[in-house]
Amino acid sequence: MIRLLTGGALLALPAAAMAQPPLQEGAVQEQIIFWHVRRPAQEIVVTGSGSLTPSNGDAAQSIAVLQNVERGLGARIENRLRDEAGIVQFRRSDGRSAHPTSQGVTLRGLGGNASSRALVTLDGVPQADPFGGWVAWSAYDAINHGGIIVARGGGSGADGPGALAGTIGLHSTMADGVSGSAAYGSRDGWDASLSAGGPIGAGEVAFDARYSRGDGFVPVVAGQRGAADRAAPYEQGGAGLRLRFDAGDDSRVEASVRGFADRRDRGVDFSASRIDGVDASVRVLHEPTDAAQWSALAYVQLRDFETGFASVAAGRNSVAPALMQRIPATGIGARVELRPLVADNHPLRIGADWRRTVGRTEEDYFFTGLVPGRHRSAGGSSDVVGAFAEWTSGSAGEGVLLTASGRVDRWSIGEGFRRETNIGGAPISDARFAPRNGWEASGRIGLRWTSDAVSLRAAGFRGWRLPTLNELYRPFRVGPDATAANEALKPERLWGGEIGADWQSGGTKLSATLFANRLDNAIANVTLGFGPGNFPGVGFVAPGASYSQRQNLDAIDAKGVEVAAEQRVGPVIARATWGYTDAKVDASGVAAALDGQRPAQIAKHGASLSLRSDDAGPVGGFATLRYIGKQNEDDLGLLVLRDALTLDAGLSFALSDAFRVEARGENLFDELVPASISSAGVIERATPRTLWIGARFDF
User: Fold this and answer.
1) Other residues' Cβ atoms within 10 Å of the Cβ of residue 290
2) Could you tell me the pTM of the whole model?
3) Could you report the per-residue pLDDT of 175-210, keeping only the tens digit for each?
4) Which of the following CATH numbers is that of domain 2-698: 3.40.50.620, 3.30.565.10, 2.30.40.10, 2.40.170.20?
5) What is the mean pLDDT of residues 17-23?
6) Strand positions, DSSP E, 215-347
7) Which among 200, 196, 202 is positioned nearest to 176, based on CA atoms?
């Protein structure tokens, strides 16, 4: 449980960035995070990480807390994450124009494909797509956020499997009253949000919603466009209902259900995509101060994804359908955790969790005009059951803190299948893939020493990730380039370590971390040939286009440094981050050409500088400079995305205690930010300059 108190911006980072006085005997261990949330001083309770109280287990690793996570007026959660150097989303474009399957997220240079190597959670519930491992970021723009905790580094057994690069924890708050926003922006963009909530009986109820749409921009850069290119519109919305109520003196129940819909286009005909999703969860928490604490969680994710891929003629003057896909998927899971009372505290966490994913892809391809000639169906299921334990030597106060955690997982991949038929005719193939299973262990050990304003820390860790059903079974195309799936992929395994130092004095904070990781069996899209020709798993590939397959590389080695500095002056917080990552591929066999190459979509340098006010006075605002270095588009390093520097800024003015007007802009320099390059040299861009004007209200 993370307790947020309004009226300030001083962060007591969860067991990482700020020392705390030792707990008195009999006290409940509790971290306090101060956030300004534009509301009179009141206490807001936020459940996080699926735990009963925050763990000190992350004390030995690098932690960042993102404050003032605003909704509406064009603000998007994924772009807020870009303020932290080292957080990498597979494409530089956001959820208004990027293809949904390219929206994975990772940390510390562990790239290679679009599946997430960082574990994303919402109030402790895993959020990656059950089939693909990508993240539907537009689904979280409707949520009333209390903050985001970014824990870098793997091995956190209590978070669950899949946190190779770290955990990005999204935390929601329960609305108290009514608040919302409405804005109009460039290219006929509209953005509206609403939150309402309050007490109901012995508990609370809250409703959150958001709707946004726009005509979009033309993705292909000027000078390369043809008659087939047009603007790429988007329409997105979501709503959620949450309920919390007491179940005795020391217990409570939390239930939530939310749904979202996402419609977007890639700027040519036959490239529209659709995502519909529904999530639900129930959590029971028992939190006595003088006895063992426990929690139980159950959740379900339902996804229905449909997308089209187009073939654009040379000169970009005509377009034809190339592939139409529909991917229904389901994720279900459960988790139990116990915190025994140890020495009048709760430094021990033990528990177990289970996650199951089921999904398939249904594809029509081999078009003659607008009529598909063949159909492919492929999919399967996976299960992971694990047990974990985490121990710390006490609270993150003065002196030495030791932490150790570990987990053991039993994974299984069910019988997979891939069937191809001529539509209205005979079957072409009917492949069955035998089930597989195995055991994996992960863990972390760390040390932190704190004296006055200085803390020194070190940690070593091991993590793992199971291939997604998407990587195992779903082929895909990006323009003319085709990539085949690989049902024989092995789990990824990471060994890593880091050392760091934190310093804080008054409103000044400094943090520096050195890290090194080795990701064995790293899954990447490996180029195996070029068209024209027919290739296994994808069919015909056009002349000059590439044919790839997902493969396990020997390893990705990544080492680097992360630096963050923060200064508070009155109501203004200045924050700067910089990350340097030296990542190299270790490859042999069919992937030998990649040996020594930099992984695709990973830049050496990334940095940000932001100024934000807490809007306590009549005038508020923000300004954020973001820099991303050049990076390879492809695995062979033949296509390079240039570096880019962008500026976002906004200014707000209070008309009364309840109303504010605001103007804000994205990419105010109108910088060309290359998002992708095809094998034919066609460049797509991320969001150009976008301006918004609107109002917020809060009752």
Assistant:
1) 9
2) 0.87
3) 889 999 999 999 999 999 999 999 998 899 999 999
4) 2.40.170.20
5) 33
6) 234-246, 251-264, 273-286, 293-312, 319-339
7) 196
